[in-house]
Amino acid sequence: MVAKIRGEISTQGGNFNGDQTAGSFSIKILGSNIEGNYTISGQALNVVITDKPFFLGCGQIESFIKSRIGG
Asked: Within the chain, how many helices (H) and strands (E) appear?
């Protein structure tokens, strides 16, 4: 899962730092810079967005992420 996430973020020109349990990322989504952290526990991926533009809704970000890595 981490390799897929790292690949998708790199393809989009973003930055990814992390391993099989936790890490952080920054990426441009829908024309806006997004930053966040992730943790992985078993088969569960937990993503926390730490910085995003006010006008970009959480639902839009969630849909974008799911479309790229599955969900």
From this structure: 2, 4
Q: Which helix (H) or strand (E) holds 39?
A: strand 32-41
Q: What is the pTM of this model?
A: 0.80
Q: Which of 58, 69, 71, 63 minimizes the C-alpha distance to 10?
A: 69
**Range of 13's domain?**
2-69
For the stretch 26-54, pLDDT in tens is 988 778 899 999 999 998 889 999 999 88
- Which pair of tokens denotes residue 32? 């806006």
For the chain, the domain total comes to 1
- Distances in Å between the Cα of 36 and the Cα atoms of 19, 47 are 14, 7
